[in-house]
Amino acid sequence: MLQAAGLTITAIATNSGERVAQASADVPEARIVPDLDALLDHAATDGLDLVVLASPSGVHVEQARQVVEAGVACVVDKPLACDAVSALELVDFAAAEGVPLTVFQNRRYDPQFRTLQEVLRSGTLGELRQTELRWERWRPVPKDRWREQVPPEAGGGLLLDLHTHLIDQLVLLHGPVETVYAELAAWTTAAEDDTFLALRHTGGHRSQVRASTVSGAPGPRVRVQGSLGAYILGSAQGEQTAFPDADGPLGQLGWVVRGPEREPVAAVESDPADFYRAVAAALVSQDPMAGMPVDPSDAVHVLAVIDAARASDRGRRVVDVITPGEAPD
Fold it and tell me: What is the CATH number of the domain that holds 48?
């Protein structure tokens, strides 16, 4: 995506022999260094406009602070932190240092999400009543990765992985989240691998979000109910679902359904590399911090929703979302 957006990759940090070989093959002109310290040494001597952190979630705050202290603009992969308070502290630190910081919420640029936004903008569904987003997979034997092996406080589990996309999208569609009810389970991994959240937004809209890696019959990615019909979208990235034709024919993304009747929805074109095009434009603008494509305070709210979801599951109750740094109503 960086290269597609016209940026030049000048250095890559990895201590994996396999990834050193891959990086050298993919970007032969880039300097390969073993860790972030060496990358920031390179920044100090040769200059860097931007550092992208794609490291495990549990080290995001520590590493992002290093980058900010070095005075280099930073893109942090989602989640920004493992909890909302830590995220806010990082956002405030970057603002105090005057260093641009943003979060890699690339799913905002997916054609599926842009198509959903257009369906809601069009008014085709009438008065909106409920939105459901799912990201379900059938993976009964978990992958051998840090995400599946570490506890939530170190960044493991679906809440800090897939839900950071899904909640972010719901907030963009329907506004901030006011309350959460959650049911979480960890069947095959150290942290949760099967999740359900019921959200109520400040404007009154209700939404539901599910993520699972142990779903033998994955449901549709999107189902939005309205007074004039429903919108349904099937798979994500070509993954098999229990609704094999829900995406629609070529050039379409989903259907507007009214009982036995349905009509296909034209896909909205979108390029995930637009995220980095926006970052590049911000870096050469008069106010790079304001121009970043994702406001990091958005990530603080998403993490506040996730924190509330954990509290809800522990207490088996509906929990108010308290976003740190925001004044209470």
Answer: 3.40.50.720
